[in-house]
């Protein structure tokens, strides 16, 4: 009898252990399925009416980005230039419970995620998806002004926090260099995103700015292109990349496709570790730290080659000085590439010497080198590459730096950086066709032409 009971006991124990192991394996499989988040990047227009207007919008954006460095001693932790760019990519975000769909500008040049909000109760007069309806979400919650998170955003100078009131929301004021401004409540909400498994995954307590007041051309004019806010992907602690990245390996990547093609190929943003990004085919360069700003993704340029010939550019041209000026930033919201003027002049001189095509009869305003390609079905241009820190080389196809600006006219899509307190910017046109991976744990940026054609 004792032997029989022992047999039954061990059989039951084996069954329970097997069930537990199977349950653990099933849980592990479900966990592994949510490896990364995949978000399509949309581009609503190819250019404003002319490339010259694209240049004008880029300059306004850069002035805004540079303002964050000029104001660094005032301890304004956030300055976004996303809304003043001309070549933005957009992300479709679902926010709230039940989810509300909103279109946000994807911006590596800022940290704050913010959306246009409405406090309406009866919202029949509002166009669908034109704003986040805070009262219609059961999970919306503003931070209190005495919460430590409230110190992460610029607060109004007037109106001290009333610690004795139970409901005293954290107010923020977010200003742009052109006088545009957004005001609202720094809040938390549930967001719903698509994981690699295809299932929708909910994330609670996403910190974001709920904007109830917006003014100025940067965030209400045509350049904002109908977006309802900005998805900050910068290095700061409140960016979407930081908040969600902690759960997905603290890295994100994107592929920006050529939006002038027809049909337009799909660009995408990946948050987490993805098989789409093949590390063995990646070239990596270190993220450079600027002690005066925690937002931007700096890389180190060591030299420039045209047709495999190094140009005589001093290393100090690319360096960050003791005041935080200079350096080079990877930016998703600027269309063209802006380079420190001494480097820009050397590059233009080299192209003028090597390009054998005739000059355009009517050059495009704002561009220093334009050529006539009429009668040339496949015009050829000299190769350009950048030697980066970490012994990597960023070699570009000519279509990333010579663009169509008019019929039978192509122009060099580079611009000189003339602001003394600014930095060089690698714009999204130069990034097209590459996967860019931002690995924040290893403090490095990877790039590859493999994988970008597979959305």
Automatic annotation (TrEMBL):
GO molecular function: aspartic-type endopeptidase activity
Pfam family, one: TAXi_C
Signal peptide as annotated in the record: 1-22
Keyword Hydrolase: yes
Family to which this protein belongs: Belongs to the peptidase A1 family.
Keyword flag Protease: yes
Gene3D superfamilies xref list: Acid Proteases
Residues forming the catalytic site: 107, 331
Protein's name according to its UniProt entry: Peptidase A1 domain-containing protein
PROSITE patterns: PEPTIDASE_A1
GO biological process terms on file: proteolysis
Keywords: Aspartyl protease, Glycoprotein, Hydrolase, Protease, Signal
Entries under SUPFAM superfamilies matching the protein: Acid proteases
Domain Peptidase A1: 89-448
